[in-house]
Amino acid sequence: MDRLDSMSMLVAVSEAGSLSAAARRLDTPLTTVSRKISVLEEHLKTQLLTRSSRSISLTDAGKSYVAACKRILEDVSEAERTAAGEYTAPKGDLSITSPIVFGRLHLVPVLADFLRAYPDIDVRLTLSNRQVSLTEEGIDAALRVGNLPDSRMIATRVGTVSRVFAASPGYLQIRGVPLTPGDLVGHDCIGVEGFTGSGFWSLADGVEIPVRYRLIVNSTDAACEAAKEGMGIVSVFSHHVAQDFRDGTLISVLPDFKRETLPISLVRESGEYLPLKLRAFLDFFTPRLKARLSERA
Prior knowledge:
The protein contains 10 helices and 13 strands. It has helices spanning 3-16, 19-26, 30-44, 60-84, 100-117, 134-137, 169-175, 220-228, 238-247, 276-295, and strands at residues 49-51, 56-58, 92-98, 121-127, 141-145, 153-167, 188-192, 200-202, 208-210, 212-217, 233-237, 251-253, 261-269.
């Protein structure tokens, strides 16, 4: 029996909440996961999981064993990283995540210079608007937009971003330019699932303006394209439309009314040891992102 492999699978099952979810996360056949957990239980001569038709839960012995497994696996991982030289030279694989549009506009251009500067570091960049778990998905650093919940994460602020209203010149010529937030009630608006409010937009002081969504999409890129086609007014972050404002394809609407400003942070897990590859990334990206964002403020 590969003890460490079985421990890893048990930890994955405990975190995922089911054998099938753990199997998907590990990209391993369900039968393999189930068999290895059973072999582990036979080896320990104790039941670790209570299985039902719909879910699983850890027994008391399972809870204690999983906690010990996590410590053991982390110690092994730390030893392997040390042996591989992650703490003596900036090298190895680095995993980063960022919101889609922000990553495309700001991370990718800086990443090109970073890879040239550090030829022994290979990067996996995941662009997703989903809040990716650093621990569960093996992410070294994440760029977050918005206020951060209290956690064990270490965050470095690199800038801020504000929400803005925008519309095409053609739409405003036909429908008129809103002069006050209340005027939005009579306009066609474009909503973004999970990003804009359900039937309202808000100002910096918390005032909520009811709006009518003529179109709802699940992507800020698509919402901006729809706005450029004259379908209505959109509410997005300033970096989503910065180039469109410069090109004149979109125009800022109600620019004198202050909207919510959110922090932009580089986030990593707390820990006693910081691999040099991650230190190199943070030292390289932090000042460059601050400079890029201040130029566009």
